Amino acid sequence: MRHAIIADDEYLSIDLIKYLIKRFDLPINVIGQALKGDEALEMIRNLKPDIVFLDIEMPILNGLKVIEKTKSLQSNSIDFIVITAYSYFEYAQSSLRLGAKDILLKPIEPEQFLKTMERILGYRYSNNKIFNEILEYINHNYQEAIELKECAEMYHTSPSYIARMFKKYYDLSFITYVNNLRINKAAELLKSTDIPIKEIAYKVGYNNLNYFYKVFKKNIGVTPNIFKNSLIEK
């Protein structure tokens, strides 16, 4: 479960976001709401959320100032989602340079909201509650050994049912989905860190280095070494 704060000087915007979280059955717990920028900053300091919905135009401190001051606290693990009216869109784009994950335009459209949250959470939501829970589990535990049979037992369903859900919503097998997730995470680590490839393989759930190389090359088109070297050359 992710923990969120909503900072907006309009009650209607706050209520709408809470409604959409509930409507789409997202694994997000709203732990605080603020009407002013300084209140939002204080909540971030005290409540330590990992998602912050943040209006650009707020009293005392605007959204950009809140992000700047939060970064000075070294709170880099927060996913900021900036909310703004169209007239402030160019201004809001500055938030992306500060590390915000996305921008939501007012009035917030349900489909726009869902697409943003799928990007933030890392997986696409379905209208199937059990399948959503399985997706959440996999995306939070991909580093561990994850087996289809064990997933089925955990969620009191059958392996064939889960397999059908992956085919229906992703047109993929269970193991292909898990491998795709792990390899994407590995590619992110290769881009952003100097961690040795062997350690990255272990971090994303592979105990067999040869298998990791095989799956990585199948997904990305080159080996992890070539991928890493191409980043250095750039």
UniProtKB/TrEMBL annotation:
Keyword terms: DNA-binding, Phosphoprotein, Transcription, Transcription regulation
Entries under InterPro entries matching the protein: HTH_AraC, HTH_AraC-typ_CS, Sig_transdc_resp-reg_receiver
Residues modified to 4-aspartylphosphate: 55
Entries under SMART domains matching the protein: HTH_ARAC, REC
Domain HTH araC/xylS-type: 132-230
Domain Response regulatory: residue ranges: 3-121
GO MF annotation terms: DNA-binding transcription factor activity; sequence-specific DNA binding
One GO biological process term: phosphorelay signal transduction system
UniProt protein name: Response regulator
Lineage: Bacteria, Bacillati, Bacillota, Clostridia, Eubacteriales
